[in-house]
Amino acid sequence: MTYAFILGRNKELSTAELGAFFKNKVTVAKHGLCAFVEGELPALSPQDFLDRLGGSVEILEIFERNVLFADIEQKVTDFLKKKCATLTGKCTFGLNLLPVNKKSQVLKTFLPRIKKNLKTEGLSSGFVNNDFQNVNEVFAFKHGLHKLGTNIWMVEEGEGRVSLGSSVSAQNFEAYSKRDYGKPFRDAKAGMLPPKLAQVMINLAGID
Question: What is the pTM of this model?
Answer without folding.
Answer: 0.89
